[in-house]
Amino acid sequence: MIKRTISGQIDKGDVNHNNRKFIAENVDRTRVNDNITIVCDDIRAVYHELFDDALKEYNVRQTRRDREIHDYREHIRHGRQEKEFYEVIFQVGNMDDTPVGSDEAKLTTEILKEFTEGFIKRNPNIRVFNAVIHLDEATPHVHIDFVPFATGQKRGLSTRNSLSKALEQQGFRGEGKLETNTKKWIEREKQALSEVMLTRGIEWEQLGTHNEHLSVLDYKKQ
User: Fold this and answer.
1) Which residues, at least 6 apart from 77, have a Cβ–Cβ distance to it below 8 Å?
2) Kind of pairing, strands 86-92 and 141-148?
3) Interior angle at CA 64, CA 60 and CA 67, nearest 5
4) Can you give the residue range of the structural domain that contains 36?
5) Chunked in runs of 10, what are the mean pLDDT values of the chain (222 residues)?
């Protein structure tokens, strides 16, 4: 059984970059067509799907017209509390032991695909609207973009955009600044990824320090 590291973290997210509407310097243009799109939905339609009913109920309750919200997505985009959407990136191995084009990379690509499909099913309060496996960079990795939503809320909309509340409703509760619900959630997903890896004969290599392995984002920054 071979061993490979796992990288998983939250990123700022750029759907146009993920879908190659523009090409960054670290992308091999000749391999762009090799990328695998798992989900590609219009985020505007997703907002209508998730929040329109709650928005209508909220506006009916308002006694002042200036407190009504006409477009919830624009309301979130111009607010300071929540983000329009979030992104997570997961990768198995690194550019040295799992380079794109190798047999190991082909195997991890199948692993990432199965993991992403499971990610969607495991997270009922996470609406994935874009998910792409990149095979035109150094190592296969997946970008998953999503809108979190929490239901049954007493403040604001009854269903609203909130990553912390969405994760709480999925059973993740933070314990101080070092053990946030987001960190616990990412660790759970990394564990789920490792379980998919095991079915393909790859064991999770957990390193002692973060400096021993460069994630996709760290590599790009350097």
Assistant:
1) 84
2) antiparallel
3) 80
4) 2-221
5) 94 93 92 97 98 97 92 95 96 97 97 98 98 97 98 96 97 88 96 97 81 48 48
Domain of residue 63, CATH code: 3.30.930.30
* Residue 191 structure tokens: 């564990």
Burial 178-188 (b: 16+ CB within 10 A, else e): eebbbbbbbeb
Rounded to whole angstroms, the Cα distance separating 197 from 4 reads 9
Beta strand 6-11 with 86-92: parallel, antiparallel or unpaired? antiparallel
Residues 41, 180: Cα–Cα separation, whole Å: 29
Give the closest residue to 191 by CA, choosing from 90, 86, 87.
Answer: 90
Please give the radius of gyration of the chain, using alpha carbons only, rounded to the nearest integer. Answer: 19
Kindly report the pTM of this predicted structure: 0.91
Whats the size of the chain, residue-wise? Answer: 222
- Between the alpha carbon of residue 79 and those of residues 20, 160, 163, the distances in Å are 28, 13, 15
DSSP track, 101-148: TSHHHHHHHHHHHHHHHHHHHH-TTEEEEEEEEE-SSSS-EEEEEEEE
Domain count of the fold of the chain: 1
